[in-house]
Each structure stands twice: as C-alpha cells, then as structure tokens.
Give the backbone structure.
Amino acid sequence: MTTALRREEPDRLPLDLGGTESSGITAIAYNNLRKHLGLRQGKTQVFDVYQQVVKIEDDLREVVRPDTIPLLLEPVEWKPFALPDGSPCQIPAKWNPEKETSGDYVVRNDRGVVVARMPAGGYYFEPVFAPLADVRSPSELDAFADEIESFDWPSYADESLDTIAKRAKTLFEQTDLTIVANLQLHLLAAGQTLRGYENFMTDLIAGKPLAHALLGRLTEAYLRRAEAYLDRVGEYVQVVLVNDDLGTQNGPMLSPDCYNEMLWPHQKRLFQFIKSRSDVFVLFHSCGSVARFIPQLIEAGVDALNPVQVSAAEMDTRTLKREFGRDITFWGGGCDTQRILPMGTPRQVADEVRRRIDHLAPGGGFVFTQVHNIQPDVRPENITAMYAAFRASGG
C-alpha cells in the first residue's frame, strides 16, 4: 500500500474496502452480501449514521482481503435497530431516531430541535438544522463557539482518545494492514452545514469577512484536534483522511478564483500541519468534478485523491493518470457506482474494472476501490464480480 502511495509500482494492486467512510458499504448492501456469501448474520454496526456505512467484520475481511483498516470515531455502546428493508443492524447508543406519523425518522438534539431526517422510503439521514443560519457578522460567531469547535466529531461517537489510541496500537501491532485515521475535517461542507448551504455559498461571494472568519475558526479547531489526536495515534497510523466535496456532477462547485481566495489557504494550512505532526499520507476525499483543483491539492500536501468520480465531467481516468499520476495517487475510480455497479450485469462490472485498472494502475499510484460507498440497491452478484475482476487483473 505505501508503495502505491509513493507512486511506485507495487508487487500487486492494493485494495480498500471500508478503510474510510467514503470507500465502504452501506448496511443493507452489507447484509445482502453476507447472506450471498453464506456468512452468518453479523453485527452490522452502522458507524456513519448519515450515510449508513458499516464496519467490515473479520469474516468478510477474510473473503475480500482489503489492505486497509479504519481507525474510526466510535461510540462506547451500540444498540439494535432495524434498517429500512427490515434487516437488523446496530447503531450508536446516543443516536436516537424517532418515527413520525409521516413515516419519516427524525433525530433531535438535547434542546429538542430536529437535526437530522430520513424521509419515509429513504435510506439515509440528512442534516436539516443550520445553527448559524441567522449570523450576520464575524462578531456573532463567539456565541456559537461550541458548535464550531465540535463540528466533524459526532456527539454519538463518544469514546475517549485513550480508547482510540489503544485500538490504534493494537491494530498496528497485530495486523499488517494500512491504518487510516478517519479525521474527516470538512471546511466547505462545514460552512454549508453550519450556515445553511445557500447562506454559505452566498457568503463566499458577498459576505467574505464572515466566511473567512468561520473558516478560520474551523481551521483553528481542527488544528487543535489534529494535534491532540496525532500526538496519541500518529506513530501507529499511515494515512489521515480529510474531506470536502469541491465538485458537482457537471463541474467544480466553486470557481478557481473563489477556491483559491476563500478555501485553499485554510486547506493548505490544515493539510501541512497534519503532515508536520506525523509521518502520514494525506488522503483527500472530494466527490464530483475536481480535476481543476488537483494541482492546488498537490501543492497543499495531498498525497491521494478519493473517490475519483469517473462519471463526473472532466474525470476521464486515462487523462487524469496522464496529467497528474506522477504527483498524486488515485484512491478509487475502480468501478462506477452511479450506473455500472448498481445497474450493470456482472460482465459489465468486470469490463469496467479491467478498463479502470488499465487506465490507473500502470506505474503505481493507484489504490483500487469503487467510486464511493456501495449503495443499498447493489446486487451482491455485482459486488463479487467486481472483486473477482480485480483479483484477475493483478490484485
């Protein structure tokens, strides 16, 4: 894995499943895959309650044989819950969905405000509360210091740093897997969630002092968090995941000028601080069309890009490899999850896998995983076809 991250030719292609909260499998698909493989019903622990992504259990690891393992932010206790298809799972004990008469599930904060909602018939929770929506000036941010300081560390993930450090040490000593610290640390998405999407996107153009003030406070909070975290686990982890969706299906979410002025300086400071605190690779997750941002990400210290959304504009894998393959590792892009994996035949899945490997693997700098998480409607036959094609192509 580290050979691939150094953009050198490995003896075999490395594989990620569940190493991050954006390269895993959702709970319904996970249960269906286990049943298809003849594995007993597992715990199906949903650690990311918004995306409904699960921890990969050891018996499935033995089948798939990924080269990664996540160091997650986890709850102290779990409790049983039923997924939308009726199959069982476990969720964090402090995550308390309530079913409304409409069929929606809602989650409230300690003040009774609805902060997340899963619509009836849906599969995911969405954040629906923007605590800073009415803020108009940087001076008003003081009143929301707690919300800013705690953003990206879920309240339901209540284990201590001591527990995380002990788990990291155990993984380091007892496995030869690449340990990925899932720190996440959004900046753009944090502003969009805290202020509300429309408010913050307007701030970036018409309210720059407020946007910079919020991004600066978030960055300071993340620097303190990263310092405390890496002081405890930095000697055990090899990769740190940071997140921010910069692209849409059809193009960048921000103009290059807006990105360079408003967001990139904060990202660069954060990424370079992480690398200064520990000998780690920085893995950056951004969905959508992000090719135009790759040079700045490389300059900021990003070592690998995920999920490599091959179906988005300007994300042709052959072009990406040719233009940027010497300077960044592509962690993803192994199989399209918008159309091929959920709607294709097993043969079409295998053809897709071979094509993406042919584009991205030569010369190193490629970690195989599908584009983003495996969704609930993906048939297990297609998942097994993906891994069979991967193994047959050098994995």
Summary: The longest helix spans residues 208-233. The longest strand covers residues 178-184.
